[in-house]
Fold this sequence. Notes:
globular, Uridine Diphospho-n-acetylenolpyruvylglucosamine Reductase, domain 3, 3 domains, Uridine Diphospho-n-acetylenolpyruvylglucosamine Reductase, domain 2, five-stranded antiparallel beta sheet
Amino acid sequence: MNPAPFAYQRAESVQEAISLLQEHGESAKLIAGGHSLLPIMKLRLAEPEQLIDIGRIAELRGVRRDGDALVIGALTTHRQVATDPAITGAAPLLTETASRVGDRQVRNRGTIGGALAHADAASDYPAAILALEATMTAQGPNGTRQIAASDFFVDFLTSALQPDEVLTEIRIPVLPGGTGWSYQKLANQASGYAIVGVAALVTLDGDVARDVRIGVTGASPVAWRAAAIEDALRGAALDEAAVTRAAALAGEGVEMLDDLHGSAAYRTRVTRGLMQRALLEAAGRARG
Ligand SMILES: Cc1cc2nc3c(=O)[nH]c(=O)nc-3n(C[C@H](O)[C@H](O)[C@H](O)COP(=O)(O)OP(=O)(O)OC[C@H]3O[C@@H](n4cnc5c(N)ncnc54)[C@H](O)[C@@H]3O)c2cc1C
């Protein structure tokens, strides 16, 4: 199906994109890689009258270190996230996550900013972004603000961004040494999207877990931190029995998705299995 008719304008700067968003109001949409927006426009699930192309704004590109943080421009493609040495050095969890997004064409065109702004329940990044405790920088008519990962994913296809804001960069605190990581995913065989994706970070002090962070995507309408399991494992020795016991709590109190890709009960079982795997792999990497 073809999209409904729309007008197209290219913004040359973030400031110009914000002005255009203000001028056109709710009828306008930013477009970056187009790999989420164009499919839903073709299905007529979105019918923006005005597209504002931010794809060539140089200030939204690039990866840099800023003190103890890694800063990733919103227009960084999934392929760049998966191959940038600075990201691999400071946040290999994100490297792994980006390499698992869709197929080569999607990774070459789609952007990390677009994926986060779109807030698809089946998107891969939210699990890692939550576990990494990243912060999203949003720029709007009143300046910039920082949004913590825990506040960013609000609802199904809804992020904390306002309609007149541009997501400009993602800031990731660099992890302490001795931190292991893992991203485990059950992928939809046709699209690659996550039916369930679990990201885990484990920092060890000897045999004992000093810190455990777990993000879950795909399983429910909004990605979540598995806080109860993190609490249960902090200070514990991460052997198979402890991890299996803790992972068996996954999904309790969470509204799981129940759709043609998997029932809520199936997603709960898959989440528990992937969490166990992710924690054991992360603990193994932390041990070196
Ligand atoms: C066949 C296929 C398979 C896929 N498989 C996967 C997968 O396995 N895992 C996965 O995670 N994703 C998958 N995707 C989605 C893909 O990752 C998209 O690239 C991504 O979700 C959106 O990025 P984009 O740059 O293409 O955004 P666009 O499609 O350009 O935009 C998406 C939305 O975000 C908004 N937006 C974009 N950039 C910004 C910004 N900087 N600030 C504010 N708002 C912004 C737009 O207005 C729009 O509403 C798949 C897509 C396709 C087509």
